[in-house]
Write a structure and sequence with these properties.
The chain is of the alpha/beta class. The protein has four domains: 95 residues, Nucleic acid-binding proteins (OB fold (Dihydrolipoamide Acetyltransferase, E2P)), CATH 2.40.50; 156 residues, Hypothetical protein af1403, domain 2 (Rossmann fold); 49 residues; 75 residues, no CATH class. It is 42% helix and 21% strand. The protein has eleven helices and 15 strands. The protein has a five-stranded mixed beta barrel. The protein has a five-stranded parallel sheet with strand order 7-6-8-9-10, with helices on both faces. A hairpin with a 4-residue loop joins strand 13 and strand 14. The radius of gyration is 58 Å and the shape is flat. The relative contact order is 0.06.
Length: 438
């Protein structure tokens, strides 16, 4: 049987028919080789660790993307598989794409926020000051929403004399962003308002998305009139809040910011009226005389205070002189007391037992269980009694081996007969023995 021979175009057509079962698939991968054509078509590849695939997203579908596709972004791409005829390459004809793990709106918000911040649209230096007394106020919001009701309620309750113009726009949906940007551009060209309020009530990120669109952000940044953004609730933040000159947490707060300035202006006018009334009053003519009287009284009190201070100064100076005289005599007294102290120390050193011991003498003490006392008479100890001998340095523990009666026991008033009797009672010279150490 002869084998069929395909033409290239026929084979590619047949393969595309066979790939029709992959008509609606979702593929996840990392974006690489991203290119945007002048016609708005997007060409890139998605890859994982082992393979990659070509993807084409035509301009008709690419315009619905809320974010920008960039290299390195992890995407989930939905479309159909096909073979590109001219290069015979397998590719994914995408109809939609969304970030993997992060919502498309949140990613678009972060991308636009970063890009506008780099351009300086959020810088405080470029923000305009809200006028102190705004008379004509424009409100860009939906005429049927809750935001305009809150604004009208605040203005009617606080200040009912303002000129308020509502520029009706859609605040939700695919065309809302363009309508808001158009309203801001028109108000910028008219230049008949003092401030512009851009408001809407709370909602989800998708509901508030028109206030996150780049066209709205650039219209606010280019507006010569000061702008106040009051979008959503207090916890909601939009690109509109970041670009506007003042961000209010709610639409009601945006109205309060404007009204407070009018309340202050009203109070200032009232104060001015009162001042003018007082200035034209007859009693105001008495004011210079009252000022002169108070000035004279102040001068008298100043003189009295000066005299009091001077008197107190003299008294303190006298007391200081009286206290200085004893101090002047103090050095001579110190010298005298020092000489007296030195004499006392010399006397103490002369009679001190330690001074006697330093000359080679010793003190003997009796040893008993209860107390320790010096021995002044050999009669108070017996042969064999333990004694202590205190030297200048250290002490000796001794035992009495013998004792004698010395001449120091002779009474001064005793006669020669008494001295002879004592000498006869002394032992022989060979029998005298000194106390020996233990």
């Amino acid at each position: 049987m002869e084998q069929a021979v395909w033409k290239v175009s026929e084979l590619i057509r047949q393969i595309n028919l066979d790939l029709f079962r992959y008509n609606d698939i979702a593929v996840e991968g990392e974006v690489t080789n991203f290119i945007r054509s002048s016609a708005g078509h997007l060409y890139f590849s998605i890859k994982d660790g082992r393979a990659q695939m070509r993807v084409v997203l035509f301009a008709g579908n690419a315009r619905f993307l809320r974010f920008r596709i960039e290299n390195g972004l992890q995407l989930i791409v939905r479309g159909r598989l096909s073979i590109y005829d001219q290069k015979s390459e397998l590719q994914l004809n995408a109809v939609a794409a969304e970030p993997a793990g992060l919502g498309a709106l949140q990613l678009a918000f972060e991308q636009l926020k970063q890009r506008l911040a780099e351009e300086g649209l959020f810088d405080a230096a470029r923000k305009k000051a809200i006028p102190m007394l705004p008379q004509r106020i424009a409100v860009v919001t939906s005429p049927a929403g809750a935001a305009i009701r809150d604004i009208l309620n605040v203005i009617s309750r606080r200040f009912d004399g303002l000129s308020l113009q509502i520029y009706p726009v859609r605040v939700q949906g695919p065309t809302a962003g363009r309508e808001i940007a158009t309203a801001i551009r028109h108000l910028s060209r008219w230049e008949i308002h003092d401030v512009i309020l851009i408001c809407r009530g709370g909602g989800s990120l998708e509901d508030l998305w028109p206030f996150n669109e780049e066209i709205v952000a650039r219209a606010i940044a280019a507006c010569p009139i000061p702008t106040i953004s009051g979008v959503g609730h207090e916890t909601d933040f939009t690109i509109c809040d970041l670009v506007a000159d003042v961000r209010a947490p709610t639409p009601s707060a945006a109205a309060e910011i404007v009204i407070i300035r009018h309340v202050l202006d009203s109070r200032v006018r009232n104060f001015r009226h009162e001042v003018r009334h007082l200035a034209s009053s007859d009693r105001l003519g008495l004011l210079p005389r009252r000022i002169a009287v108070q000035r004279e009284r102040l001068n008298r009190r100043r003189v009295s205070l000066y005299r009091l201070v001077e008197s107190r100064t003299r008294s303190l100076r006298t007391r200081l002189s009286a206290a200085r005289d004893p101090l002047a005599r103090f050095p001579a007294r110190v010298v005298r007391e020092r000489h007296q102290l030195e004499a006392t120390v010399a006397t103490l050193n002369a009679v001190s037992p330690l001074s006697v011991l330093s000359r080679g003498y010793a003190i003997a003490f009796s040893r008993s269980r209860n107390r320790r006392k010096p021995i002044l008479d050999s009669a108070v100890v017996k042969v064999g009694d333990p004694i202590e001998v205190q030297l200048k340095k250290g002490r000796l523990e001794c035992t009495v081996d013998a004792k004698t009666m010395g001449l120091e026991t002779v009474w001064p008033n005793g006669g020669a007969s008494e001295s002879k009797r004592v000498r006869e009672s002394l032992p022989a010279a060979g029998e005298d023995r000194p106390a020996s150490g233990k």
